[in-house]
């Protein structure tokens, strides 16, 4: 059985990705900052839960230690936790990068020993085309008209980290993705986005490709994106 950890999975795309992977036979661990919300989501889905705050080293370490004790390995890691800051100041910048970029480093580093015990380890980063220079400088793309400096910059960092990890660990499949504009808590104030079911399918597709698929790329549902 494929063992999967999804960060920030008690709601939104992460929750729906968990549901779809469970249907495919994965044993899914829902990582959530709030213990009660994580346990509630896991109970609803038939998954397992673990307290995991990607901005806290001790929390990340404890979460991966718990999965190690229970499973002995990790086959799929989905970096889904993220924030969207609309302000532009120092504290907002720190929150953006700590969650969207540094959190990827914390969780990946803690997960690497478990991933190396997998026969086909896969890491998927839910990033954004807002972090693509190509997209935000292309007047034909909607990203070019969206002024979200911290979100765009931190997602560019998330994608670059994913690419660099793929170079450092060629035995593990690493990819970043643009899931599509999705109706979640993050976009509620904007009133935009498609159902989470559609975007989660993009995540699931990359999470199940394994070593047979690409590595070190940024992708959406249509294929590889320039960035």
From TrEMBL:
Keywords: NADP, Oxidoreductase. SUPFAM superfamilies: NAD(P)-binding Rossmann-fold domains. InterPro entries: NAD(P)-bd_dom_sf, SDR_fam. It comes from the Bacteria. GO terms for molecular function: oxidoreductase activity. Belongs to the short-chain dehydrogenases/reductases (SDR) family. This is SDR family NAD(P)-dependent oxidoreductase.
């Amino acid at each position: 059985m494929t063992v999967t950890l999804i960060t920030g999975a008690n709601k939104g795309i992460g929750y729906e990705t968990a549901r779809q992977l469970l249907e495919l036979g994965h044993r899914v661990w829902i990582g959530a900052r709030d213990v009660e919300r994580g346990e509630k989501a896991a109970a609803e889905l038939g998954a397992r839960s673990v307290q995991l705050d990607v901005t806290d080293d001790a929390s990340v370490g404890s979460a991966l230690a718990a999965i190690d004790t229970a499973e002995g390995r990790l086959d799929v890691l989905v970096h889904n936790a993220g924030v969207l800051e609309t302000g532009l100041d120092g504290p907002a910048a720190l929150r953006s990068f700590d969650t969207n970029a540094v959190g990827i480093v914390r969780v990946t580093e803690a997960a690497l020993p478990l991933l190396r015990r997998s026969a086909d380890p896969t890491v998927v980063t839910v990033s954004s085309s807002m972090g693509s220079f190509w997209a935000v400088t292309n007047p034909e793309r909607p990203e070019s008209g969206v002024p979200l400096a911290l979100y765009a910059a931190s997602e560019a960092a998330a994608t670059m980290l994913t690419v660099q990890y793929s170079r450092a660990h060629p035995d593990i499949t690493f990819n970043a993705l643009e899931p599509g504009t999705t109706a979640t808590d993050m976009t509620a104030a904007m009133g935009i986005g498609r159902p989470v079911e559609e975007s989660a399918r993009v995540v699931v597709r990359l999470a199940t490709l394994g070593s047979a698929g690409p590595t070190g790329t940024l992708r959406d549902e249509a294929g590889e994106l320039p960035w």
